[in-house]
Amino acid sequence: MSIPGLGNISAQQASLPSTRTLTLHPFSEWRFQISPTSTATCRLLSGTAERDGTELAQTKTYNLTRCRSKIVTFTGATLEITGEFESEHVKHYPHSADSPFVAYLNLHFLLQARRSQSSSGSGHGPRVMICGPPASGKSSLAKMLIGWATRQGEQPVLATVDPRDGMLALPGTLSAAVFATVMDVEDPEGGVGVGCTPSSGPSAVPVKLPVGYYFGRERVEDDEGLWKDLVRRLGSSVRAKTGGDQGVRRGGVVVDTPAVEVRKGEVKVKGEDGEEERERGERVEGLMHVIREFAINIVIVLGSPDLEAELRRRDRKTPLGEPIEIVNLDKPDGVVEQDRQHLLSSRKALIKDYFFGDSKRALSPSVQSFSFDDVVIFRAVDAMDLDDPNQVLERAEISEEMSHWTLAVMDASVNDPLETVRQAPVIGWVCVSDVDKDRRRLKILSTVSGRLTRPMVWGRWPEPYVNLLG
Amino acid sequence: MEDHGDEVAADFREALQDLTTNARFEIVTLTNIARENADHGLAISEALTNHIKEAPASKTLPALYVLDSIVKNVPTPYALYFGPKLYQIFMGSYTKVDNATRRKMDEMLKTWKEPVAGSISKKPVFPLELVRPIENALLAARNAYMEQAKFQTHLMRGRPAGPPARDTPTPPMGRAYQPPPPPHGQPPYQGPPNGQYPPPGEQAYPMRSGNTPNGVPNRATPPQPAPSAGPYAHYQPPPNQGPYGVPPASGINIDKLKDDIQQLIELDRAGFAQNMHDASKQNRLKALLDLQKVVQSQNLPQEQLMIISDQVAKLAVNMRAAQAQLPPSYPPALPPPYNTHTPTPPVVTQQFAPPPVAAAAPPPSVLPQLPAVLAAALGRPASNVAPVPLAAAPPPVRPATTAGGAAPGTLSLDAILGQGALAALLAAKKPATPQQSSTAPVPPPAIIPPALAALRSPPQRAAPFQPPPVAQQQPPAAAANPLTQNPSALLAMLRQSGLLGGTPGVPTPPSAIPSLPPPDPNIITLTPASLKFPRLHLLPYLLDHLGPPCSQCGRRFPTTEEGRKKKTQHMDWHFRVHQRVAEAEQRGQHRSQFVSELDWIQSHEEPDVDYNAPSGGGGSGDGDGSESDDNDWSAAVKGGRRKKNEKKKRWITAPDEGDGTGTGTNKVCPICQEKFQSRYLEEVQDWVWMDAVVVGSGQGRRVFHGTCWDEVNTGGGGGGQGQGTMVMLGNSNNKRKMKEEEEGGGGGGGGG
């Protein structure tokens, strides 16, 4: 049973608030926050401007919603903006050299130089890992580096091992994708939201194909073993990809990582939302794991000399024998500390986008009813003190508790070993909309109608989305 | 008409003479005059250029505003006329005005890079190629100044806020946040971003008649040779002028250099006579004498001479300033010393020929081997000459023996001219050769082989005394030392003795790695310092150099033949998608599932490949690479693994009988002897032959019905796989004609 038209929830607002014109000097930024319920438009009247490394087309009206982002210009620009903003202001730097973008641009040109050099050498472009404390602009920088490289005709891989991000996937997923085409400026996540993944219809902005592995937790330390396994899987997929495709090999890899904070020799993990704070000595080890699995040769630390020092202490060579270069850049000001509420609403919006599409593309998912016996749902075992170390998953008991949770559909067979299922790439998500225990039936919202023959995994994050179906 | 042009120009010139304030209406009036007399634009532009050149500092800014206004309001033809001279006009003015005015000029310069506010034209006021060299020069000057600042303050002790350079202690020079310009649509003149011209009273230096002798006592200085030409000959580059102070076509005249040094010596000697106990003066004098000896006795390369003469020029300025402090009657508020228009200034360092400001053709080069870098730095065609390394000229005399600080044993252009100067040189060279790849390694920084560690020892030890040609008042110093044979060593010595600013061991940013020579700022290294160094000249590689952007998505395409082709394809794709988006809304869509690992690994993004090319048999019919209309996985995974039992519609674009492509193509399937039917395929907006495959190439090229071909080559039922030549068709077991699968699809082409 498909429900056409449900995707049109985020309808355009009828009233058009006042139009303003902004003049940006070179290297200044227009920073804005737009709430999920309001929309705004932005139009580039003159000059050049870009969001996260992707240029705005001249005189095209871009619709923006639900984002905290910035539009930056290097040559000066005039923007025409309309709509409601939670906040917006123009950030000028007294001198363009003060802008953090100077360093970012230089970094890009350095990477371009490395890409050119790679053609004559191993063919492997730079593999960059970006790390730093919370709200240091890691994801923005990653997107910019990818956007700039794509503009220059490169085909780099963007990977995220931060389960919170959900790049081209729902949160709780580690993923990677090749970016060879323009990114979506209107996407709330800056071109890497799950809304940019393929649908059955046409897309005005070229879609991106991800490969993702479902972690199902918010923090790395919630299941460090699984995280490491998935990083390994993702890393080997990316390596296989770069190995088989010369263009991608040259383009290199940019890896975005979970926030890690180091202070005075002790390593702290701090939640992006600033709430959770725990001390764990293994966090830097986690970054080293990423460095190994992705054969990272350039490490960008944002705003944490301590973390840089900590990484340098463990400095090693890449599998290709190159030295690992580490550099610490200043953390840009103006990075918004994402509050918990905003993150929660972003997650929900992502789930909605995944099933129902966004304002540009209304999708019609289907709600189907299944017997308990028709579906195979696994759940990670809570207690790890089992006799059988391979018993990493167990069949989940279907109950009302499962309502409104999103389950990951794994690219595996129900008869596969549990470890295989656990580490299988995810091919999609479904949402349990209703559980009728008496009749032993459950209703499932899925993108495509049809039987659910694949094993599904019930993670512990992101949290259930109660109002997904209205 | 020529006469009339002269008249107009004369009138204009007179009007300019009266312009002493930034009165808006006067500027607007002048702009209107220029607009109405655009026929005589050349004459007017020359009049204005000359006025700016000759005007006293106080009148310069209003005149520049006139230029700014004219260019912004009457870009044609004035932008064209002023463009080539922009560098000289701007830099010439910049050197003579005070800091407050410079700030205004910075603002103005910034607006030149942008389109005129409120204009429909997207072009900047002046092309970036013209503005960038100026910016680079200013940047270099500022960077260099940082190093010199200490020395400056030392020398300028007691002197009022000194004009020679941008000497505010903090860098932001007039780039502090300015509120955005007023809304558009204001009166014709859109001035600099601050929107209004400051009243003249704000200027730090009230107007001073250029003719008034400034009363600098001419003590102990022999009469000077008259400046070679006009008041502009007094033009002195500001201290630490980066590349820009050097006129493009004049080499370093060694005789003049000798004269200058001689004059400095005499001046210094006079100062020394006044204050015998000032050890620093003594040292300086000795160092100068050494320098003189080196210059006279050795045949130095141009680059070295250039550096020396720069420094000498700087010294002259400073010493004159120092001298100026002496007379008690001297008024406290001084115009910039090098801006004086006294007929015979105490010291004229005129090693530079007057810059050919207005002249279209540069004067014949005095020394043809003038480094090409300099020419490039001035925005002239560099004729692809790589920067001449400074190295090799002075032989290494002795390896460094003492680690006297950072950067022992090496001395680079950076160290001499100040950090960033080389960057500016190289940066300015870029625009001249825009094709140069951003990644092409720039020649490594010129490194002069080991300067002596002894350089840092007191100069007395190192100061050999050779009687200069003039009468001596100085006791001879220590015995001759091989040091003097090394010019770079000498420079270092001068610096040590306080004559020159900028200690080589303390380059501002890259001090982290003291044992290495300062890195070439143009080569980006993975260090914070290098990454933070602005390289604005690289920006176009992300913007204009990629070609004009697509109006739909901002993606840029080069203007080459290939780029145009790609853009056409790209626009077609936009067109098709737009059409289909509307349809798809009604049809209902759903999110696709992600691909398997293997498919992801084997998928290939190729944004510019047109899969509609003939022989669509290979891929899915409506695919278009990653810009696929249907974002079906199978389309995206195209080129990768193909699923078994895949029954794809195979088609080729129908050959056109009109052109050559169609003539060689068979119109009948060789197997079933049926004609191919053309059919309009909505998805590709073109006529196609459905169920058709191309086999072979060149002369042997044949078109078959895909189904016929499969039937024959699979041995009728999947028994035998295609052999050898049939690889392109894969292992389809499909024996049915496409027609059967095409039900409702508008009628199969193959026809039974």
Automatic annotation (TrEMBL), chain A:
User: Could you tell me the superkingdom of the organism this chain comes from?
Assistant: Eukaryota
Sequence ranges assigned to domain Clp1 P-loop in this UniProt record: 132-259
Query: Clp1 N-terminal domain: from which residue to which, for each copy?
Result: 23-117
Keyword Membrane in annotation: no
Q: Carries keyword Nucleus? A: yes
State the similarity comment: Belongs to the Clp1 family. Clp1 subfamily.
Q: What is this protein called?
A: Polynucleotide 5'-hydroxyl-kinase GRC3
Question: What species is given as this protein's source?
Answer: Podospora comata
UniProtKB/TrEMBL annotation, chain B:
Put simply, this protein is called PCF11 component of pre-mRNA 3'-end processing factor CF I
Which intervals of the chain are annotated as region Disordered? 154-249, 459-480, 606-666, 733-752
Residue span(s) of domain CID: 4-142
Q: Where is the composition biased (Pro residues)?
A: 178-201
Q: Which domain of life is it from?
A: Eukaryota
User: Bias regions of kind Basic residues — which residues?
Assistant: 639-651
The cross-references to SUPFAM superfamilies, in alphabetical order and at most eight, read: ENTH/VHS domain (SSF48464)
Species classification = Eukaryota, Fungi, Dikarya, Ascomycota, Pezizomycotina
| Chain intervals with Low complexity compositional bias | 471-480
